[in-house]
Amino acid sequence: MNTSPDFSFDETSFDIEDSGDLLGLVRSLINGQHPGVLATTDDTGQPQMRWMSTLSFGDFPVFHTLTAANSRKVEQIRNNPRVSWMFFNKDLSMTLHLRGQARIIEDPATLKHVWSSVEDKTHTYFLNEYSHRPGFVAIETTVESIECSSPASGLRVEVPASDLSLEPAAPMRATS
Asked: How far apart are CA 137 and CA 132, in angstroms?
């Protein structure tokens, strides 16, 4: 299984001041075909992390993932919507941290829309335990800050999503 993008980081041509370069970097690491690590906090305040691979990034800086309705992460997000995501390139020379607010989506029409936008559905293991539809929820994350780092080159830049030349997308809503 390919677990990360084939993107390789070139610190000699990357312009930290150019939001287009940063957005290009972000998009190369979160193209919907590779997993990320989602961090939440449990009811004792302890961080909880897990791989997530059913991702949809078409409305970035708002993005979605699918999960079982009864998973622990759903309850954790309902109790504390602050989340953090980590993505990385194939040779691990670049990591990307996205921080923001998450919410749980259960509306069937919106779930259908999210389902259709997810590129890689090969890891929808949570559907195996359900006999009724839809049997899943979506986690919608609105990114508030983006941090890129490359330990080998000493690069670390954190930018509020609002400072990039993009407008945060409105939360996804199904249309009739």
From this structure: 13
